[in-house]
Every structure is written in structure tokens, then in C-alpha cells.
Write a structure and sequence with these properties.
With 274 residues, the protein is α/β, with parallel strands linked by helices. The protein has 2 domains: 185 residues, 3-Layer(aba) Sandwich (Rossmann fold); 49 residues. The chain contains 9 helices and 7 strands, in the order H-E-E-H-E-H-E-H-E-H-E-H-E-H-H-H. A hairpin with a 4-residue loop joins strand 1 and strand 2. The chain is globular. It starts with a helix and ends with a helix.
């Protein structure tokens, strides 16, 4: 009877081990047919995204300056010229994430590959470095959407080291592109200048130092009514909405009042509602 119990225990152990190995099995990624990937930090695994978003950057209106700067930086990166990490910050719904996602369609044919990393997984990003450096034919962007840290989190200190490389050199074919609603990624207060510190500015400077790792930092600001209606008109044309412009604009303004803001996301939601 004891032998049977031992055999059952061994079989159960082997099954559990097999399940773990299967769960951690990393799928092969054919980069010639994969332009976007998702990184899961718990298992240190990359998953190919079979149907990446297809965003046309030309459809992103009222952010011409930001588009030009990001496209120029990415073009330099693709052409093996010096380029910066990018931080897009500012008002929600103004095209920050869409601009970065649109780079897939714009540059994937010339070797750009994008890896999305969730904020909760950023501390294990360095596990990707070997994969990226061993595929140096391609240029990689690690995309972190809605990057921010709570006031009591120290994770931003680790991310600074990861982005700087520490003792491990960052692959030359890698850049970080991130979006955030916060300019400095971490909440700052007047009390950060508290004179109880020997050097009052040190506490504040430490909080601002992470955003300094992004050489290109661009702000996105809320749209005025004319800019909002311009986006409404574009979506209405694309979806063949047959309304007189005066009526369309009146309904769009009413929609934005109910939504509490005017931006590209609200404009698209309004036209979709029609």
C-alpha cells in the first residue's frame, strides 16, 4: 500500500513538473513574419502578436510637430544613426499611444520590430537583451504604454538602471518608447523641496531623473473645438456618415460636453455612435 502511495506521489510530481515545463515553453518567433510581440515578465516569455494594429499615422491630426519629431527619430534609428529613447506625455486621447503603434505599419518593412511590455514587467526587461542583440539585423522598440509610478514605489530607480544598462550593455539595436499622462512619470509635490533635507533639491531631482533617460520628450495638449471638429470630419468621411456639417458639428459638440473632454478618442467614439 505504501508503494502505491509513493508511485502516485511520484506520478503527481512528474505531472506537475511537466505542466510547468509546458507553461514555460517559449514559442519560436520568426521575425521575418512577426512585427509585434508581447513580453510576459512572469515567465520571461515573448509571444508573437498575430494581428498587430494597423494605424495610419497620417490619420492622426493636430499633432504634426510631435509626429515629425518621432518619425525623424525613428528614421535615424532604422538607418543606424544616433537616436533617442522617446517619452510622449500629456492629455489622454490625443494620440500618444496611436503614434507609437503606427510606427509598426510605417517601418516594419524596413526592419522595425516592436515589443510591448506592461509596467508591471519592466523590472525584467533586461532578460530581452540577449534575444534583441542576437537578432541585430532588426531594430527593436520596447513600447511601454501608460508608464507611471506611485509616490511610494521605488521601481523607477531600477528602471533607470535598466535603461542605462548598468554593467550590461544595452543592445545597440534597441530603443525605449513610452507614453504617460505625467510629464515626470512620478508624482511631485511642493513638499519634495522640504528644507529638512540637507540638500532640499535632491529629493525632487531623484524623482525627475527617470524622465531624463528619455532624450526625446514631447508633450500632447488638449484640443480646442476647431481641432476636435476637424477630427470628427475626418472620421465621418471615412465612415461615410451622411449628415450636414452643421448638424454633425452640433451633435459632436454635444457629445464632447457629455464626455467631459475633446480629443481624438472622443471624436472617434462619437462618429461610431452614428
Amino acid at each position: 500500500m505504501s508503494t502505491t502511495f509513493q508511485e502516485d506521489s511520484i506520478l503527481e510530481f512528474l505531472k506537475t513538473l511537466q505542466d510547468k515545463l509546458s507553461a514555460n515553453k517559449k514559442p519560436h518567433i520568426d521575425l521575418s513574419n512577426t512585427v509585434a510581440m508581447l513580453y510576459i515578465g512572469d515567465t520571461k516569455t515573448l509571444f508573437p502578436i498575430k494581428n498587430p494594429v494597423k494605424i495610419d499615422i497620417d490619420n492622426l491630426l493636430n499633432i504634426e510637430y510631435q509626429k515629425k519629431r518621432v518619425l525623424n527619430n525613428t528614421t535615424n534609428f532604422i538607418k543606424l544613426k544616433p537616436a533617442n529613447n522617446v517619452l510622449l506625455w500629456g492629455e489622454r486621447g490625443t494620440g500618444k499611444s496611436s503614434l507609437i503603434k503606427g510606427l509598426i505599419r510605417k517601418f516594419s518593412s524596413v526592419g522595425l520590430r516592436m515589443i510591448q511590455v506592461f509596467t508591471k514587467d519592466i523590472l525584467s526587461i533586461h532578460y530581452l537583451y540577449d534575444f534583441i542583440s542576437s537578432n541585430n539585423y532588426y531594430r527593436f522598440i520596447i513600447f511601454i504604454d501608460d508608464l507611471s509610478f506611485s509616490e511610494d514605489s521605488d521601481d523607477f530607480k531600477a528602471l533607470k538602471t535598466i535603461m542605462d544598462g548598468g554593467l550590461q550593455e544595452i543592445p545597440e539595436n534597441l530603443l525605449f518608447y513610452a507614453t504617460s499622462n505625467r510629464r515626470h512619470l512620478i508624482p511631485t509635490r511642493f513638499s519634495d523641496r522640504d528644507t529638512d533635507f540637507v540638500m532640499p533639491s535632491d529629493n525632487l531631482e531623484e524623482k525627475l531623473s527617470l524622465s531624463d533617460r528619455f532624450g526625446l520628450r514631447l508633450g500632447f495638449y488638449r484640443f480646442d473645438e476647431d481641432a476636435y471638429l476637424k477630427i470628427v470630419d475626418m472620421y465621418a468621411r471615412q465612415r461615410n456618415v451622411s449628415l450636414e456639417k452643421e448638424t454633425l458639428h452640433r451633435l459632436a459638440i454635444q457629445w464632447s460636453v457629455e464626455a467631459g473632454c475633446r480629443n481624438g478618442r472622443v471624436a472617434e467614439q462619437f462618429v461610431r455612435s452614428l
